Amino acid sequence: MSQFTPRVLSGMQPTGNLHLGNYLGAMLNWIRMQETHETLYCVVDLHAITQGVTVWGGPTVLRKAILDVTAAYIACGLDPKKSIIFNQSQVAEHAELAWVFNCVARLGWLDRMTQFKEKAGKDKERASVGLYDYPVLMAADILIYKATHVPVGEDQKQHLELTRDIAQKFNLDFAESIAAQGHGEAFFPITDPVIQGPATRVMSLRDGTKKMSKSDPSDLSRINLTDSADDIARKIRKAKTDADGIPSAAGGLKGRPEAENLVGIYAALAGQGVEQVLAEYGGGQFSAFKNALAELAVLKLAPIAGEMNRLLADPGYVEAVLKDGSDRARAIAQPVMREVRKIMGFVVS
Ligand code: TRP
Predict the structure, then answer these.
(1) Which runs of consecutive H residues, i.e. helices, occur in the chain?
(2) Would you tell me the crossing angle of helices 59-76 and 286-312 to the nearest 10 degrees?
(3) For a Cys staple, 210 with which of 11, 140, 204, 239, CB 3.0–4.6 Å?
(4) Which of 47, 115, 157, 191 to mutate to test the pocket of ligand 1 (most atoms within 8 A of CB)?
(5) 3-class SS at 83?
(6) Tens digits of pLDDT across the chain (349 residues)
(7) Other CB atoms within 10 A of residue 169 CB
(8) What DSSP character marks residue 144?
(9) How far apart are CA 39 and CA 13, in angstroms?
(10) Closest ligand 1 atom number to CA of residue 88
(11) CA dihedral 19, 25, 31, 34 (to 10 degrees)
(12) Does the reported pTM lie above 0.85?
């Protein structure tokens, strides 16, 4: 697969506020990869509408959410000069390739997707067709840029597998034409997920067995990137723990999801290993550790909220970033889509 130049793409939905889980689980990798790779970071606004308008909230809400998430990207450290930062709906080729992939992917593959089952709930008949098709659009997001690496949270693994299956089937179904058009053995890369870092799964502060989530009804369960310093400190002090203290080695965190989560969050924010954190705090009480964690979290996260507010005071700047990014993304996507049409036999003039 060495014929493909390394290229990174990832995206987040513009729904609700981003939280610590998004930041530690994905964004830190995104920021790191800007230094070593060509990077595209997308605000996946077409995905945001897949649960129907009563869920996503309508035009005013959507528009604000797109600008908010873009501001969060920049405030966290994504640099519009180093990365292409854009919103999906401004590059029509995502939707166009998704249609082609709809005709490559099989119903049986989509039937296995656990995220659809979770989101559709019991009443599958009333779920939108778009919600079911969500992973196919995601495959198009990635492959329209021939992205080789996709940094995501653990929960997206299955969608990445589907992306690989679609690329493989397209490459096989059209192998002859792909070769005849001078693309060698494969037109699309078989994309690698990048799931790494100390805290790929950040759990709820109220229940260490549940993921930190923007849809949890309790705001105490998560740290939002827009939280004030006081809120951050308060939520950490109130975080659920068990009756024991901090263990001196990682083995002592087994079966203690809340303790494991808080130590993992500390390690990720400090850029340290879990063992290193336990070497410092092991043997101590949770109250003291929580104070240290609150201080560290405020130090790392409060400036992000400040920068977001500064950016949102100037929506013109944020919109200009999206326009420039979308122009640059389209310049990559259009020729790829044209090749896809030629490979498949559509008449291209
Ligand atoms: N499904 C991803 C999520 O919920 C968001 C997403 C859409 C995405 N398209 C993508 C992530 C392409 C990576 C690459 O987090």
Answers:
(1) 20-22, 28-33, 45-48, 53-56, 59-76, 93-102, 107-111, 114-120, 129-143, 157-173, 175-180, 229-238, 257-270, 274-281, 286-312, 315-344
(2) 120
(3) 204
(4) 47
(5) strand
(6) 458 999 999 999 998 789 999 999 889 999 999 999 999 999 999 999 999 999 999 999 999 999 999 999 999 999 999 999 999 999 999 999 999 999 999 999 999 999 999 999 998 999 999 999 999 999 999 999 999 999 998 889 999 999 999 999 999 999 999 999 999 999 999 999 998 765 568 999 999 999 999 889 999 999 999 999 999 999 999 999 999 999 999 999 999 999 999 999 999 999 999 999 999 999 999 999 999 999 999 999 999 999 999 999 999 999 999 999 999 999 999 999 999 999 999 999 9
(7) 16
(8) T
(9) 18
(10) 9
(11) -140
(12) yes
Give the strands of the sheet with 38-43, arranged side by side.
83-87, 38-43, 7-12, 149-151, 192-194
Q: Report phi then psi at 19, rounded to 5.
A: -135, 180
Indicate whether residue 162 lines ligand 1 (CB < 6 A): no
- The pair of three-digit structure tokens given for residue 301, joined into one six-digit string: 């996260």
Beta carbon of 142 within 6 Å of any ligand 1 atom: yes
